[in-house]
Design goal:
- The chain is of the alpha/beta class.
- The chain has helices spanning 2-7, 20-32, 46-49, 70-80, 127-131; strands spanning 12-17, 39-43, 57-62, 85-95, 108-116, 119-126, 164-165.
- The chain has one domain: 3-Layer(aba) Sandwich (Rossmann fold), CATH 3.40.50.150.
- The protein is 23% helix and 28% strand.
- The strands form 2 sheets. Strands 3-4-6-5 form a 4-stranded mixed sheet.
- Strand 1, helix 2 and strand 2 (39-43) form a beta-alpha-beta unit.
């Protein structure tokens, strides 16, 4: 998803991945698409990464391994460390519909969901943005926009020209 965001104008994408084979694939694909200069690839556990001092992302794409409860844990950690999400930012979580869960949050709120077969995208924003049902630049949440990569194993962002995704 991060490569897609870069190809559509994102200024930067950060990929956080712990699996060596997936890291090799990400690096290979960035080289093949000539987008490596605008990407950072970090070989780390996302939970350790998110405990670092935060740097805001416009979009955070969370796509962990399925059926392990990792997406909820990731969103809860992002809620505890709100500096990771830019003020008008969006968190996009990709998961199986059977993994849908209410996530207790203090600073973030659910902004919508979209389901396509066996894939569900759940959107989160800062609580005041999510309550209004809007995300980002006054747009309804959508999975149609380009997105990029940070989560266990990779999450990312929705690309606006010059945006920073992770």
């Amino acid at each position: 998803m991060g490569i897609e965001a870069l190809s559509r104008g994102a200024a930067h994408a950060t990929f956080v991945e712990s699996a060596a084979s997936a890291l090799a694939d990400i690096r290979h694909n960035l080289d093949a698409t000539h987008l490596a200069a605008r990407a950072e690839v970090i070989g780390a556990d996302v939970f350790a990464y998110l405990r670092r001092p935060p740097a805001p992302f416009d979009v955070i794409f969370v796509a962990p391994p399925q059926w392990r409860g990792l997406w909820t844990r990731t969103v809860q950690l992002l809620d505890q460390r709100p500096g990771w999400l830019a003020p008008d930012g969006l968190i996009v979580v990709q998961h199986d519909p059977s993994e849908t869960a209410d996530v207790p949050l203090r600073r973030l709120g659910a902004a919508g969901e979209r389901t396509y077969g066996r894939v569900r995208f759940t959107f989160f924003g800062h609580a005041q943005t999510a309550e209004s049902g809007l995300t980002g630049q006054g747009q309804q949440p959508t999975s149609a926009g380009p997105v990029s990569g940070l989560a266990p194993p990779g999450a990312a962002g929705r690309a606006r020209p010059g945006s920073r995704t992770g």
